[in-house]
UniProtKB/TrEMBL annotation:
Pathway: Carbohydrate degradation; glycolysis; D-glyceraldehyde 3-phosphate from glycerone phosphate: step 1/1; Carbohydrate biosynthesis; gluconeogenesis. The keyword Repeat does not apply. This is Triosephosphate isomerase. InterPro entries: Aldolase_TIM (IPR013785), TIM_sf (IPR035990), Triosephosphate_isomerase (IPR000652). The keyword Phosphoprotein does not apply. It comes from the Eukaryota. It comes from Microtus ochrogaster. Its EC number is 5.3.1.1.
Length: 153
């Protein structure tokens, strides 16, 4: 509970991934794991497909280690992005090796913001996916359209 008896909100997004952890169920007793400076208005969200076999939490990069320490070990942790090469002068980018060093086993690639805000092409996302897989990360590949495209049919 937050100060004043108000219920504190969760701030990580968890995604169900099919085929990874048979028999795992989502926990409903998770404690808040975000410091007050980190998006306090975000709510814990679990999305799923019909198989509901596993849970992955994808916090911002700065909180990957924190999430790994606070979450149940049955809940995997993912980075929200990675780059297409192992090393080099790519300021602000994170490699699959760095992600694994932080305790994450997954990465989300191709998210709409990366495509539409940062202009990432299908070709670049494909290179990132191939590199992440070759480095031993699981990949959550985002494929979809913008809201206006979906609403237009």
């Amino acid at each position: 509970m937050a100060e004043g008896g108000e219920k504190e909100e969760f701030c990580f997004t968890a995604l169900y991934i099919s085929g990874q952890w048979p028999g795992l169920c989502a926990r409903t007793d998770l404690q808040p794991v975000c410091p007050s400076a980190m998006a306090p208005s975000r709510k814990f969200f679990v999305g799923g497909n019909w198989k509901m076999n596993g849970v992955v939490c994808a916090p911002p990069t700065a909180y990957i280690d924190f999430a790994r320490q606070k979450l149940d070990p049955k809940i995997a942790v993912a980075a929200q992005n990675c780059y297409k090469v192992t090393n080099g002068a790519f300021t602000g980018e994170i490699s699959p090796g760095m992600i694994k060093d932080l305790g994450a086993a997954w990465v989300v690639l191709g998210h709409s913001e990366r495509r539409h805000v940062f202009g990432e092409s299908d070709e670049l996302i494909g290179q990132k996916v191939a590199h992440a897989l070759s480095e031993g990360l699981g990949v959550i590949a985002c494929i979809g359209e913008k809201l206006d495209e979906r609403e237009a049919g």
